[in-house]
Design brief:
heterodimer; A: 274 residues; mainly alpha; MetI-like fold; 2 domains; B: 304 residues; 76% helix; flat
């Protein structure tokens, strides 16, 4: 190995830090807005650091009851993720071990993931209006579950393929049913992948906007819809937008930082194994 | 193994095989049924409605044949939205790819804190696109956003660019937001691919005295090509569905100058209540995309 001169290292760190400053600036701005006094946000030229950092904007979200939208997001994304994980893992196991549907089923499922949400939600909206499912937990959870399923099936298919077949076969010889093998052997073996898949599926649902925008009115608005409601034709409530954005983004950052090892596989639909 | 033995094992495993097939379908059916319910129902419903003339004020439509499709194909606003979506694709994707590749080549180096840098750098990709659009909307604001302020420092004189108000600037505002959010996606995928490039081949090339550019184009690039293809496919289909960030930045405006396909359909369906007409657009887009996706997936063979 050649020894690289010291200034190489200095340049490398300099460039790295410059890249980070540029790429993280919008996130920095989001946090700063959430801490500014509402008047300060409308300063021109803009203030880069709040003169008196304060949590009043967050307090306003709690006092006005806006934080319920975070609860709605949590319930909708959480329940739909759990249901999608159960149904999706079963389906993925069938595809991996029983070759159900062959390659065509797998490709069809993946292609469902790629369709434009607006094309799906438009008819769903009219159907929900007739069935009384609009603006209800059940309606949104149903849609989010169906939308998360292709992702879960595709990812779990990959993780279950990595489980050694011998283990499952010997468990089968020991008299376990197919469901028993899946639950007692395959799932524990694929546990890390399963958790990573669940968290990514949750993040996608948590971040979703279009479905929620169309299918909620007042009862079950999610945090992304809540933010969109702060944009008014007369005035825009940037203080609340900043605070709500921070509350909606921080949990995702924490989860993703813990999932670093699974990130590449998780966002590339399993196509790239990091 | 002789043929006789082979036949015997085949016979004894046949009943087992049908049993396994039944179990497989029992496991897969709930998920498939749900996907069909949410995936196929909208398609057939849209198909039926697209041949009628239902609107928000005219709920009982009559059959009008292909009238909606004729109107759609001659609707300049539809084609403009379609073309704009392709333009975003054509501008944003190469930028994301190039920046992602450059970042990956830079952060390939093994140095202390590299993992921390990478961990921080991926964060934009997991921000809700809706939140990203909102933040950029504020940053682009010509009075209290920092973007014009920074440009003014660089230019050395006050600058007033009406980012989300002037059509051509609004387009670039969308591109910047897209590239900011999704370059990290390209970056981590390419970084992972670079780590998997065969070391021995690289060292052999270095010993042979091949220059850095030669090594990159002859060895590294071919090795990471499959990953680039997949990353571009995923991002390309994402751009086709782009809605959240554009909606937050411009709502398709000024006028309809930044309307994408999704925004076109949203406005037709949920603001103009042009139900049958929107359904025709839905059917057309679903049809074109389904065919394209299936063909590409089969060709790429990521289904292995």
């Amino acid at each position: 190995m050649r020894k690289t001169p010291l200034w190489h290292g200095i340049v490398w760190y300099g460039v790295s830090i410059a890249i980070l400053l540029v790429m993280l600036f919008p996130i920095y701005w989001m946090f700063m807005v959430s801490l500014k006094l509402p008047e300060e946000i409308f300063a021109s030229p803009p203030v880069w650091f709040p003169s008196q950092p304060q949590f009043g904007n967050f307090a306003a979200l709690f006092n006005d009851g806006d934080v319920w939208s975070l609860w709605n997001s949590l319930v909708i994304a959480g329940v739909s993720t759990v249901v999608a994980m159960v149904l999706g893992t079963l389906c993925a196991y069938a595809i991996v071990r029983f070759n159900t549907g062959g390659e065509n089923l797998a490709i069809w499922i993946l292609s469902q993931r790629m369709l434009p949400p607006i094309a799906i939600v438009f008819p769903i909206f009219l159907a929900y209006a007739n069935l009384g499912l609009a603006d209800s937990y059940f309606g949104l959870i149903l849609l989010y579950t169906a939308f998360a399923l292709p992702y879960v099936i595709w990812m779990m298919r990959g993780y279950l393929q990595d489980v050694p077949r011998d283990l499952e076969e010997s468990a089968e010889v020991d008299g376990l049913s197919a469901l028993g093998v899946l639950w007692k052997v395959a799932v524990p073996m694929a546990r890390n992948g399963l958790i990573a898949t669940a968290i990514f599926a949750f993040i996608f649902s948590w971040n979703e906007f279009l479905f929620a925008l169309i299918l909620t009115r007042t009862e079950v608005i999610t945090f992304t819809v809540q933010i969109s409601q702060y944009f008014g034709s007369q005035s825009t409530f940037w203080a609340k937008i900043g605070a709500m954005s921070v509350l909606g983004t921080l949990p995702v950052f924490i989860a993703v930082t813990m999932l670093q090892r699974y990130l590449v596989r998780g966002i590339s639909m399993g196509a790239v194994k990091g | 193994m002789t043929d006789a033995v082979l036949t015997q094992t085949k016979l004894s495993s046949r009943s087992l095989k049908t049993g396994r097939r039944a179990i497989g379908w029992r496991f897969a059916t709930p998920a498939i049924a749900l996907i069909l319910l949410i995936g196929l129902f909208p398609f057939f419903w849209s198909l039926a409605v697209s041949f009628q003339n239902i609107t928000g004020s005219n709920r009982a439509g009559i059959w009008v044949g292909l009238a909606n499709y004729e109107r759609l194909l001659s609707d300049l606003r539809f084609w403009a939205a379609f073309g704009r979506t392709l333009l975003i694709l054509a501008v944003a994707l190469p930028l994301e790819l190039i920046f992602g590749l450059l970042l990956a080549l830079h952060f390939q180096a093994d140095r202390p804190f590299k993992r921390l840098f990478v961990a921080l750098l991926v964060l934009p990709a997991v921000v809700s696109p809706m939140v990203a659009g909102s933040m950029w909307r504020l940053m682009f604001d010509h009075k209290f956003g920092p973007i014009n302020q920074i440009i003014a420092w660089v230019a050395g004189e006050p600058v007033v660019l009406l980012w989300v108000i002037k059509p051509y600037l609004a387009f670039w505002a969308i591109i910047i937001t897209e590239v900011w959010q999704w370059t990290p996606f390209m970056f981590v995928l390419i970084l992972a691919a670079l780590a998997n490039v065969d070391r021995e081949q690289l060292e052999a090339a270095e010993i042979d005295g091949a220059g850095r550019f030669r090594v990159f184009f002859k060895i590294v690039l071919p090795a990471i090509m499959p990953v680039l293809a997949i990353a571009l496919l995923i991002r390309g289909l994402d751009v086709f569905r782009i809605f959240d960030a554009v909606w937050q930045l411009t709502r398709g405006g000024p006028g309809n100058k930044t309307e994408t396909l999704s925004i076109f359909m949203y406005i037709r369906g949920f603001q103009s209540f042009d139900t049958s007409y929107t359904a025709a657009a839905v059917v057309l887009v679903l049809f074109v995309l389904s065919v394209a996706v299936t063909l590409i997936l089969k060709r790429l063979r990521i289904a292995r």
